[in-house]
Design goal:
Order of helices and strands: HHHEEHEEHEH
Largest sheet: 3 strands, mixed
Number of domains: 2
Distance between the termini: 105 Å
CATH class of the largest domain: Alpha Beta
Helix content: 40-55%
Structural class: alpha+beta
């Protein structure tokens, strides 16, 4: 809550300063254009200087707006904030992407996984995963499994605020190869584990060897 109030105060101050500077610059320019020959006034003594001042103010405000936009983009591309019991931890975005990619690639069917973590809004985090899969797998089932793995791994890396929202987008880009056949050892173990049924009893078989008498 305190951070929200500080952010709101900074926004109001910046907006007030920008509007005041824009108003002053526009006032000088309009007076210089509409009243080019006022005698005995401040504008008549240094019309060119005032015009330059107005243009400079407008230019500075334009640069300031570009600076604020660039700063906002840097905030969106910077580290993620993880809430802990004793404070806030900054987690590198690259580290989070690497951890999510390793967790997703642990699934045998996932191939060439690319993960991008975006923050389109302050309290919204978007994880976008691009992947390939073999031809003979269910894409819906695989996407659901990948979503679950990525969500669990993200929760271990970053703890969002209570108002924070995590969204995951699964983007299937195409097929790549086929599923790997089951290992031979696994098949042999499965065969060996099957119970061996003894043949049913059908009576004595002839000839029966007689025991030799002593």
């Amino acid at each position: 809550m305190e951070e929200d109030l500080k952010s709101l105060a900074r926004t109001l101050v910046s907006a007030t300063n920008a509007l005041a500077a824009l108003g002053a610059g526009s006032y000088f320019l309009v007076n210089w254009i509409q009243y080019p020959s006022l005698e005995g006034s401040l504008l008549s003594n240094s019309k060119g200087s005032l015009a330059l001042v107005g243009c400079a103010v407008l230019l500075l405000n334009a640069l300031r707006l570009l600076y604020f936009r660039a700063g906002r983009r840097r905030d969106l591309e910077g580290p993620l904030l993880s809430k802990a019991a004793d404070g806030t931890v900054h987690v590198s975005r690259e580290a989070v992407e690497s951890g999510l990619r390793s967790a997703g690639e642990a699934l045998d069917e996932i191939t060439r996984l690319r993960v991008k973590v975006l923050t389109p809004a302050r309290k919204r985090t978007l994880v976008r995963a691009h992947y390939l899969a073999p031809e003979d797998v269910s894409i819906l089932d695989l996407s659901s499994r990948l979503r679950t793995v990525l969500m669990e791994r993200f929760g271990k890396l970053v703890q969002l605020e209570s108002e924070g929202k995590l969204e995951l987008e699964m983007i299937f880009e195409g097929f790549y190869g086929k599923s790997k056949p089951a290992p031979v050892e696994v098949e042999q173990q499965a065969v060996e584990s099957e119970p061996v049924e003894s043949p049913p009893f059908t009576g004595p078989r002839y000839p029966i060897d007689e025991e030799e008498s002593p």
